[in-house]
Amino acid sequence: MAESTRLVDLVQTAADRFLADRESELAEIADELQPFGGFARDLLAGGKRFRALFCYWGWQSVRSLVDPLDPLPTDDRSSEFEAVIQACTALEFFHAAALVHDDLMDNSDTRRGLPSVHRRFESLHAKAGWSGRSARFGRSGALLLGDLLLGWSDELLDAGLALLADPSVARAARVEFGRMRTEVTVGQYLDILEEAAWAEHSETDQLSRAHRVILFKSAKYSIEAPLALGAALGGASLPQLESLRSFGRPLGVAYQLRDDLLGVFGDPAQTGKPAGDDLREGKRTVLIALARSRLSGGARRALDELLGDPELDGQQVTMLQSTIRDSGAVEQVERIIEHNVSLAQSAVADAPLTRAAREQLSRLAERVTQRTS
C-alpha cells in the first residue's frame, strides 16, 4: 500500500499546485472571486481518491515500473508517469465538479462534514446582507463553481496528454475521458428521472431501471472509466482493456450498492452526511426497489409516502430504516455486493496484467466495498 499512499500525496500536491496558479489568476480578475478557490480547495482536500487509485493501477497493470514500491521512475517513462499523475488529478477535479452539481440537485446541506458548496455561497450572501434571495445566489454560485471545476479538469488532462510521446495514446485516453463524462452526466439525469417518474413503471421495471442508474451514474464512472483511462495512457491492448472493464464494471456496481446502504444506514460521523439522507432525497435505489418488492401493500404505501420528504425527522428516518431492514432487502443487497466482488476478482485472476497490479486491484476491491464512509 506504500505506493498507493504516495500516489495520493502526489495527486494532492498536483491539485494544490494547480489551484495556487488558478487562484492567482482569479485574484487578478477580482478579489471577490476568492471563494471559488477556497471552496474548491476544501473539496479537493478530502475524499478517498479511489478514482485516482484505479487510474494509476490501470496504467500500472500494463506498464510495470522497475521498482513497484517507488512510483518515481528514473528512465524515459518519467514523462508518461507525470501524465498519469495529471490524469489522476483531472479525475479528482471532475469528481469535485460532480459533487457540487449533485449536492445542488439533491439540495444537500453537507458534504464531507462541511456545508455543501451551494450552502456556503448562500451563507456568504446572507452574512453580507446583499439584495435578492440567498438561496438563489447559492445555487448560482455553486453551478458556476461546478462548471469551473469541469473546465479545470480538462486543462489538467490536456497538460498530461501533451507529455505523451505517442499521439495515438493521447487520443485513446481523451476518448476514455470523454466517454466517462458523457456516461456520468446522462446517468445523473437517469437518477433524477427515476425519482420523478418511478410510479409509471412496474415493480420489475423499477429494479432494472435502478440497476441502469447504478451502472451509468456510478459504476462505470467510479471504477471502470478510471481503469480504462489509466490503461489507455499505458498503451493497453484490447484484451487488457477488456479484462479491466470486466473487473471494473461489477466492482463499480458493488461500490455503489455499498454507497446506497450507507446513504440509508451510514453513521453521520463517518459519512459526513445526515443519517438517512438518501431517504429525504427520495433516491430510488436498488435497495428501495428490493424493499418495495418484498413489502405488504400498507408498508409499501407508507414507504412511498415518506420517501423523498425533505422534512423527515429522526423518528421517521428510524421507522423507514426498520421497514427496509425488516423486508430483507439489506441482506439481499449484501449478497449482490458479494457476488459482484467475486465476479470482479475472477476477471483479473488470470488476466494479461502485471502481477503487482492484479494484487493491488484485488485489495482495492475489498477496500471499496467494505468501507463505512
Automatic annotation (TrEMBL):
InterPro entries: Isoprenoid_synthase_dom_sf, Polyprenyl_synt, Polyprenyl_synt_CS. It comes from Lysobacter korlensis. It is an enzyme of class 2 (transferase). Keywords: Magnesium, Metal-binding, Transferase. SUPFAM superfamilies: Terpenoid synthases. Its EC number is 2.5.1.-. It holds the Pfam family polyprenyl_synt. Its cofactor is Mg(2+). GO terms for molecular function: transferase activity. Belongs to the FPP/GGPP synthase family. The keyword Mitochondrion does not apply. This is Polyprenyl synthetase family protein.
